[in-house]
Sequence to fold (168 residues):
Amino acid sequence: MTIKADSVVTLHYTVSTEDGTTLDSSVDKAPLVVLLGNNFLIEGLEDALVGKAKGDEFSVTAPPEKAYGERIDTLVQQVPRSMFEGMDVEVGMSFRATTEEGEQSVIIIDVTDEEVVVDGNHPLAGIPLTFDVNVIDVREPTMEELEKGQAITEKSCCDDEGCSNKKH
Fold:
């Protein structure tokens, strides 16, 4: 069967940066099982899977715009240190901030006596990502999977409370 939108795909992957730094891998772990077309995977990987079949092995580099987006300079902001009064803030800490667009994750990238610099970009924004992929299985989704918008496996995170849509 050839992979298409709404296929349930089981795969192993390794994702790395241009310099070869491995960021994540399912090798030596349970394979990833995903229902395509539900924004579970980054766009560049999902696009590359379409047309592949069980047993295919390939590499694809997803440019930033098809991964975690380009860096947006305006998402790096200096805020008064007084906004963190009573908090012991350090570079690398992350937290949720309320912005005009709603809740957003930010990472502290610099701290001085006067200000704290936070970055609202995804940590992998602006970085091309290379995926080495081994397609283990491809199948049609069940009606339940289509209704829930997620592949259902023995270790699925879908339950009566809902599903997780964490991107991999």
